[in-house]
Amino acid sequence: MTDFAKTKAMFHIPAGVIYLDGNSLGPLPKAAAARVNRTIEAEWGEMLITGWNKAGWMDMPRRVGDRIARLIGAEPGSVVLGDTLSIKVYQALASALEMTPGRRVILSDTGNFPSDLYMADGLVRTLGQGYALKTVAPEEVEANIDDTVAVLMLTEVDYRTGRRHDMQRLTARAHAAGALAVWDLAHSAGALPVDLAGCGADFAVGCTYKYLNSGPGGPAFIYVAPRHAEVARPALSGWLGHESPFAFDLGYRPGRGVDRMRVGTPPILQLAALDAAMDVWDGVTMEAIRARSIALTEQFIAGVEAACPALHLASPRDPVTRGSQVSFRHPEGYAIMQALIARGVIGDFRAPDILRFGFTPLYIGEAEVAGAIAILKDVMDNALWDRPEHKVRAKVT
Ligand SMILES: *Cc1c(COP(=O)(O)O)cnc(C)c1O
Q1: What's the 278 CA to ligand 1 centre distance in angstroms?
Q2: Domain at 56-281: CATH code
Q3: Catalytic residue at 256?
Q4: Is 259 an annotated catalytic residue?
Q5: Could you give the angle at the alpha carbon of 269 between the alpha carbons of 268 and 270, nearest 5°?
Q6: What is the rounded distance in angstroms from the CA atom of residue 367 to the CA atom of residue 296?
Q7: Ligand 1 near 184 CB (within 6 A)
Q8: Pick the CATH number of 4-30+285-391 from 1.10.8.640, 3.30.70.100, 3.60.10.10, 3.90.1150.10
Q9: What pTM, to 2 d.p., does this model score?
Q10: What pLDDT does residue 38 have?
Q11: pLDDT band at residue 49, thresholds of 50, 70 and 90?
């Protein structure tokens, strides 16, 4: 049995805060602070450069990758950490395109996170030769999988609305059409059960600073299906993806398996924070997370719709087709969110009009959901958002 009282006690949540933004930046696992401190003082401080061997720093991207593999249904040894998600999107796409010669289209959807589309666009420009990125509405993806498509590139859960693609079905459709499937799990890993091996996904990528709580700027992960791992050629052929980095050969030879997706020196302090954050998942099943996440999002939707008729649900009503977030629309969404944050309810705003709330059962329960609904009702009933200070746009929304 997953014990959510126990997991909640493992996080530092500031007093007076209801944190509904773990889908953007997970809160601090208490053990992470101590662990990073130990890595700094006992490892970096005392071992200096010998820490790469003595403290096992060089193996961390794969070792911690295996801890994530369990949560996303990936085979052991198929996940490696490093760089940012945008970089990992580029790597997965570039390798997948090279494996589907003769085809030129990357198919994605207009609900995808812009950075994924920007990276695809940049890659297509570099490649030339008629490569193109095609984006269609999320509902139109399946009908557009044809024999021109080289790679289907989708984010399973839409960052704005929480709409969820059917990964199993779309991967099978892509394969039937002769294409490969690259999945972005930014809003899936740690949020809901994922079965990469069972779906036959070819590549997957995701971040660790959202539902996996690794802290700001934590490294991203990349999954390469074992059947492709010795075939996929890395586009970003850095020395740590080389078969033998310390041979300092002038010619590049890709490393074994998913190790070839490593690029440069791994961020050890961030990996230490992530490793400690992964301890929270020991004894937690994704099935238990999903059941509770659905209960919390259902409670929130019912409560907000009853209390705040001016807000319109932007997320799918059917929980099966929804991730672990709930979004509402309102033309004054930005100011409403600032008024909420000023009262300790932290969600975020996504242009043009979306108020976004993430539900992470590891530290959010019914009491927090009820509290957030009551404060939102107060903000709406009394127009507490209608003040100049809530309308000034900050750099990060
Ligand atoms: C959060 C997110 C990103 C962010 O990419 P970074 O390179 O880590 O800044 C990219 N894609 C998706 C789908 C995201 O949700």
Answers
A1: 20
A2: 3.40.640.10
A3: no
A4: no
A5: 90
A6: 10
A7: yes
A8: 3.90.1150.10
A9: 0.97
A10: 98
A11: very high
